Amino acid sequence: MQTQWRSAALVGGLALYLTGLGFVGGVAADRIWFSRDRAQALHRYEDDVRKVHGILIDLERRANAARDDTPEALAEVER
Question: Quick check: 63 and 73 in contact, CB under 8 A?
């Protein structure tokens, strides 16, 4: 009887250990995937911000050149 109790306790303890290990592994995998997805989203966001910033700078340059009637300013608009 004592041997059966020890076996059951050992099997139960091992089952709890493996369950906890699986849970921790799942949490770690989820964090890694989330981090990768977040990094990709931030990279796309930074690329888009750079594109919009470039467009805004170009628009500002053209607006400033349109106010000036000098040949240099008009050449700047043509670029």
Answer: no
Instruction: Report pLDDT digits (tens) over 50-60.
Output: 999 999 999 88
Q: Length of the chain, please? A: 79
For the record, the structure tokens of 40 come out as 């990709």
d(CA 55, CA 49): 10
**If you average pLDDT over residues 13-27, what whole number do you get?**
94
Write the single-letter amino acid at 43.
Answer: H
Residue reference for tokens 């076996």: 7
pTM recorded for the entire structure: 0.51
Tell me how far apart the terminal alpha carbons of the chain are, to the nearest angstrom: 92
Q: Is 37 left (phi over 0), alpha (psi -120 to 50) or beta?
A: alpha
Query: What is the rounded distance in angstroms from the CA atom of residue 54 to the CA atom of residue 48?
Result: 10
